[in-house]
Amino acid sequence: MPKFTRRRLIQTGLAAGAAIATTRCGAQTDAPVGTPNNPAPGPEVNANKMKDVTLRFIGTGVAQINDIRDKAQEDLGFKIELKALSTEENNQIAITQPGQYDMFDGEYFSLPLVIPSGNLQPIDVSRLANFDKIVPFFTTGEFNGMPVEKAQGTAPIKVMYLKDKDSKEFSATPTNWATMVPFQYNADTLGYRPDLVGREITSWADLFDPAFKGKTSILDIPSIGIMDAAMVVESAGLMTFGDKGNMTKAEIDEITAILIAKKKEGHFRAFWKTFDESVNLMSSGEVVLQSMWSPAVTAVRSKGIECIYAPLKEGYRAWGGGIGLSRSLEGAQLDAAYAYLDWVSDGWVGAFLGRQGYYSAVPENAKKFMSAEEWDFWYEGKPAAVDMVDPFGATLEKAGAVRDGGSFEERMGNVVVWNSTMDEQVYLVQKWNEFIAA
Amino acid sequence: MYQPWKTAKPYFLAAPQTLVFLMFLVFPIAMIFIVSFWQFNIYSMTPAFTLDNYIGVFTSGATLPTYLNTLKYMVLVWSLCLAIAFPVAYFLSFCIQRESLRVLLFLVCTIPFWTSNIIRMISWIPLLGREGLVNQLLLNLGVVSQPVEWLLYSDFAIVLGMVHLYNFFMIAPVFNSMMRIDRTLITAARDMGASGWDILKEIILPLTAPGIAIGSIFVVTLTMGEFVTVRLMGGGQSASVGKLISTQIGSVQYPLAAANAVVLLLATFALVIGILRVVDIRAEL
Amino acid sequence: MPPKTQSMPTQTTLDPVLSPAAKASTPPVTGLVAAGVSLRSVTKRYGDFVAIENVSLDIPAGAYCCLLGPSGCGKTTALRMIAGHETVSGGEIVIGDRPVTHLPPAKRNTAMMFQNYALFPHKTIWQNIEFGLKMKNVEKAERSRRVDEILDLVGLAHTAQRKPNQLSGGQQQRIALARALVNRPQVLMLDEPLSALDENLRVRMRSELRKIQQQFGLTFIQVTHHVEEAFSLSDQIVVMDHGHIEQIATPTELFNKPASQFVAKFIGDNNIFAGKVINSIAQPNGQDLIELDVAGIGTLMCRGVATPNGSEAACSVRPDLMHLEPSELAPGSMLGGAENFNRSFARITDVELTGYVTRVSLMLEATGQPLLYKTTTTGWMQANLQEGDRVAIQWAADDCVFLPY
């Protein structure tokens, strides 16, 4: 290979744009970091400059919603362009095409992949208005001594901070430099059709109950699917893990062997990859019990089909989303991005997403924008005093209903594992492919 | 007299096509080829020359079953497409006399392309699902007592989905070949005492062979790289090389995906060359 | 046009195109027996359109018969009905003594040679010729023998393993002929067999076809719109127009005595005068002397079968049978003392030397009608006339054919 190609690490995609991406990435690494050392320049001056700013915002469908964009543009005065992607595409663009976005709405578990690319710039925590109000399991790793403090996998706190403003290394203890500002998150579990299952689902192990042979499903995204599978095999007593969030090769071999055996038995009806697929599988009755995302359960219910998001005795698998800033942001654009981060934590968005069942990183601010009935239902686990209506006007729950799993504390406090990127990620994908091919 | 413009003109005229060809075909493939030799770990890839990715491809337990599975789909889809396309094209070109009716019926064959891939795939569920129309019918007729599970999320469903999607790619070239057969050849054969079956076997089939070959190339290349239908109709439970590559790309393992892509490309090339060795398609070009 | 045929040099200087075997006086191919073909009141309808109307025709065994006519006259339809590729709407077709009206093509003992030869492009020459034998389940060794024999006959044995597109047009034509003959038909049908060839080859192939027909002694029925081709090949010419037969005649009869205005015009160059019958004088030989009144010219005399006075009719004279003379000469002086002759004045408008023959365009003084005169080039030189000259034209009543319709 020619010399220059060895000179440095290059992240690049297979697309034709890879060459451009590479050049830009290199240039940015060499240039001094654009963050001005003087925080908070005069707000009036900025407000004028910010009017001409357009921020390109990539993320998954959860928060890439036009209503949120419109409200943000109205409140902040600059333009935001949305681009909704799948989890996988989102990560790929974050890593390989830094020129394509200004803000990145991603999951914490993808940070071990994204951060080494150097495409995100560390966020100056001291510039954030609401950082100290963020739920503590993000910022300090603590949460009333509940199980979530010891949760396995890529817990947000493990990848929340960088050692320094130029560092690509995660810091185990809080620093002034954050990777992302937490945004929305949730505790995932199994969803089921009570009418077709015929009993209460209380354990992850129920997914392997022979009674549901040919009627179950899990996620076909290796990093996420393996976590659900790990919860299942562990609670079924089929195997134990040192750390489910960071399996050894032997553990990966063992769990894949179990999955392959189950697949050959015909235990799974299908695997799903997108939100819509999981909704279709459940509402058509093809699948009666599967790992699901909270709003997917809501979507099934809104079709008039009973669906329960089971609180399980072993606890939840959680995911956390946050907003990171592109390395290329500077000047007025960077100021605008910081303004957006503050706006996101300010409560309006938290309330908006809260009405769909997601949790806000700053619940106390979200509360200001929610009615007392909404707050009680979504966060406190109390029966709905009135019908619960989502931001788009659809009635999700009738008065009297109670949120599956109960209050915020009961749900998030009982998270035992987060979505993960493991050290043996490459091996995991290979074994996952073997599982699919079996 | 030396006229530089006249000499350069053909090159200028050919340049846009060549550039498009280079940029959108040669460059990406070259890129894939190069990347397939790079090193990678979970975070990043490094330009280098390593055969590890290829060693990975050939030693992985997933490779052989996945390729065999893909070949299985290819053979099934190809033979079913041919079995359906030949009579359909024959009917269109030899049994329909009115040109307008023929055009109309040919357009009917394109109906599968009138909706998006995703919508087509989703609409199989109410048809083939456990509570779908086919199962309802079978249950009502008393043919089965339990819903038939293998109608959906199975190899059957995958093959059905692909045949549905790709049949037209076989019908069109076969139909084209048949339309180009000089009708007096058939009169001549009949004049010499050939029966309908003789005419089919001795005249129509050999003269349609180039069309069948072109259709086969379409169907084979499309099926070999297929992953969307495999995932949606197979309920994510069935493997194909395309799906394997897409999973690797989804997990940001580009060099491995690239190595797999190169192997798939070569395998597909081998199949296409095989087809071209059996049938001379120049007559159709 | 007739002078051209009469003096065609190519016929005498023809290259030998047949192999030595083909030139042998005794036919080498056995098992060929010619049969006559009869059409009895045959009609073909496509919906309301009548393509062939009540056609009756007898083609003797061993004859070379040409169906001649403009495109759309029904000649190809007639041929295809005889071959069995077209159903018959009414009437009967008999080949030899067998009614074949409803038999499939292969059961009629006919073979057809197509306009574009219809050789199978994917089969070798050998396989093309073998095809019919194979379809008729002729035993393999016999097939092989007969294919080789016919290939030898047409002198193309060396092309046996080639594909049709590797052969020249003439070679393809001979293969098409061989492929038809190998099945030993009683009647060979040829649909415009020469139209795909260029002029030179056409003339050579024409003579070759005639030779093969004579050598095999088969009945050949050929469709053509080419008058010269029909004249040079046929024993019998059937002129067709609009789905019915205008005239059935030998080439000589057709040349000398066209039966109708259509035929006279179609065979070309004849000078035709339309008028009304004013008098008929019966003759014992059936060649009645008929007087026509032609507007602007006056009375013209011609020979034919008498029709009632007042009938609309016409007469025709061949351009080579007219006589031109300087206008000052006495009438009839160049007609060798013919009793009845026609005379009129014209001006020479154009002289065209085409080789042996010179074509002289004239304009009739009285009516402005254009006429054509043909003479040998030598004769023209001696006449010492040129463009613009006023001349007297004369032709004998015996050379003038009465056209009843």
What are the SSEs and their pairings?
The complex is a heterotrimer of chains A (438), B (285) and C (405).
Chain A (H helix, E strand, L loop, with lengths): L2 H5 L10 H13 L12 H8 L3 E7 L5 H11 L2 E7 L1 H10 L6 E5 L3 H4 L5 E2 L1 E2 L11 H4 L16 H4 L1 E2 L7 E2 L5 E2 L2 E12 L1 H4 L18 E4 L2 H14 L13 H16 L3 E5 L2 H9 L5 E4 L1 H8 L6 E2 L6 E11 L4 H14 L3 H7 L4 E2 L2 H6 L3 H7 L9 E2 L5 E3 L10 H6 L1 E4 L6 H13 L1
Parallel strand pairs in A: 1-2, 1-3, 10-11, 10-12, 14-18
Antiparallel strand pairs in A: 3-14, 4-14, 5-8, 6-7, 9-12, 9-13, 9-14, 9-15, 16-17
Helix pairs in contact in A: 11-19, 12-13
Chain B lengths: L3 H32 L3 E2 L4 E2 L5 H8 L3 H33 L3 H10 L8 H6 L1 H5 L4 H9 L13 H25 L3 H9 L4 H29 L3 H6 L7 H10 L3 H25 L7
Antiparallel strand pairs in B: 1-2
Chain C lengths: L1 H5 L13 H4 L13 E10 L2 E11 L4 E5 L6 H9 L6 E6 L2 E2 L10 E4 L11 H11 L4 H14 L15 H13 L5 E5 L7 H18 L2 E6 L2 H7 L2 E6 L2 E6 L1 H6 L4 H6 L4 E11 L6 E7 L3 E7 L7 E6 L5 E4 L14 E13 L3 E8 L5 E7 H7 L6 E7 L3 E4 L2
Parallel strand pairs in C: 3-8, 3-9, 6-7, 7-8
Antiparallel strand pairs in C: 1-2, 1-4, 4-5, 9-10, 11-12, 11-14, 12-13, 14-20, 15-19, 16-17, 16-19, 17-18
Helix pairs in contact in C: 4-5, 4-6, 5-6
Describe the structure concisely for a colleague.
The complex is a heterotrimer of chains A (438), B (285) and C (405). Chain A is an alpha/beta fold and 438 residues long. In chain A, 37% of the residues lie in helices and 18% in strands.
Describe the structure.
The complex is a heterotrimer of chains A (438), B (285) and C (405). Chain A is of the alpha/beta class. Chain A folds into two domains: 16-179 and 319-345, Periplasmic binding protein-like II (D-Maltodextrin-Binding Protein, domain 2, 3-Layer(aba) Sandwich); 188-315 and 414-437, Periplasmic binding protein-like II (D-Maltodextrin-Binding Protein, domain 2, 3-Layer(aba) Sandwich). Chain A has 19 helices and 18 strands. In chain A, a hairpin with a 5-residue loop joins strand 16 and strand 17 (395-397). Chain B has one domain: MetI-like (MetI-like fold, Orthogonal Bundle), CATH 1.10.3720.10. A two-stranded antiparallel ribbon of chain B has the order 1-2. In chain B, helix 3 packs across helix 8 (155-179). The longest helix of chain B has 33 residues, at 63-95. Chain C is an alpha+beta fold. Chain C folds into two domains: 2-256, P-loop containing nucleotide triphosphate hydrolases (Rossmann fold, 3-Layer(aba) Sandwich); 269-403, OB fold (Dihydrolipoamide Acetyltransferase, E2P), CATH 2.40.50. Chains A and B meet through helix 5, strand 11, helix 12 and helix 19 of A and helix 1, strand 2, helix 3, helix 12 and helix 13 of B.
